[in-house]
Design goal:
The chain is of the alpha/beta class. It has one domain: Lysozyme-like. Helices cover 25% and strands 12% of the residues. A hairpin with a 5-residue loop joins β4 and β5. The radius of gyration is 17 Å and the shape is globular. Bound molecules: zinc ion.
Length: 265
């Protein structure tokens, strides 16, 4: 518990510090993106081929920031199942150099089909983390896929398989898509993959939530994944979530409840 409290304070301090040193630039970015206080549904959406998260509006970056130095000195290895030879190539909309990748976006699929990688081939993201913790690579990092709306051009997407609840403990269409919680194996693999990507791709600065880029993804990836992987990366890897209040194109910022340990929300 002491660890959690310390981590939370550190994360908030980090966000506040970043906000202070770059407030001007951030406000400009928000104005450029036409950010207003959005009123939007908090429902999750299926992240399969039923609906691609196409770019909406302009590509918008949070702002420039200095990469944290923290734990990135240490490389990590994660076991990754490469499915890129079997996934639909038409989902790869453009190619880019690794150096164009500046962030990682976290998602929940909104459904779960067990831990068989073949059943997730049509999920539009670079990586999918299955309930058993297996990390599946669906598309190369150098391919742009339509996973994260306005973040697509410069980010890598990670989907966690499951229909996860909101901070109020509500599931989206639970009778159809189930009531899931992230497994401890998924969380461990998520941390490992974020750490690995952050170490391997030197241009990465941001750890972002799909929620921040779309008004229709209010609970994406949801508080459990965000706290355990996104907020963890801010605190432990010194990654940057855009700061308090950050969102683009009508998406919504990370709420305080997502930065709060599960038992204290
Ligand atoms: Zn998403």
């Amino acid at each position: 518990m002491q660890f959690l409290r310390t981590r939370r304070v550190a994360a908030l301090f980090h966000s506040a510090l970043w906000g202070a040193i770059s407030a001007g630039a951030r406000i400009s970015a928000l104005l450029a993106a036409g950010i207003l206080l959005g009123s939007a549904s908090a429902s999750a959406q299926l992240e399969d081929d039923f609906e691609a998260a196409a770019p909406e509006g302009e590509v918008t970056r949070p702002t420039e920031a200095v990469r944290g130095q923290g734990i990135r000195r240490r490389s990590v290895g994660c076991s990754i199942l490469d499915q890129t030879a079997f996934t639909p190539v038409e989902k790869r909309k453009a190619e880019r150099p690794l150096s164009a990748i500046q962030g990682i976006v976290l998602h929940q699929t909104g459904f779960r089909r067990g831990s068989d990688a073949d059943r997730y081939r049509r999920v539009t993201s670079h990586f999918v983390i299955l309930p058993d913790g297996q990390i599946v690579k669906n598309h190369p990092e150098t391919s742009v896929v339509w996973a994260s709306n306005g973040f697509n051009a410069y980010t890598v997407a990670i989907e966690f398989a499951g229909n996860f609840p909101s901070a109020r403990g509500r599931w989206w269409k639970p009778d159809d898509y189930g009531r899931h919680r992230p497994t401890s194996a998924q969380i461990a693999s998520g941390q490992c993959l974020v750490h690995k990507l952050y170490f391997d791709i030197e241009s990465i600065v941001w750890i972002l939530a799909h929620r921040q880029a779309s008004p229709r993804r209010g609970n994406d990836p949801g508080p459990d994944i965000w706290y355990e992987v996104g907020d963890w990366a801010v605190a432990e890897l010194e990654m940057n979530d855009g700061g308090l209040g950050f969102s683009i194109n009508g998406g919504r910022s990370i709420p305080d409840s997502w930065r709060t340990p599960p038992g204290e929300r």
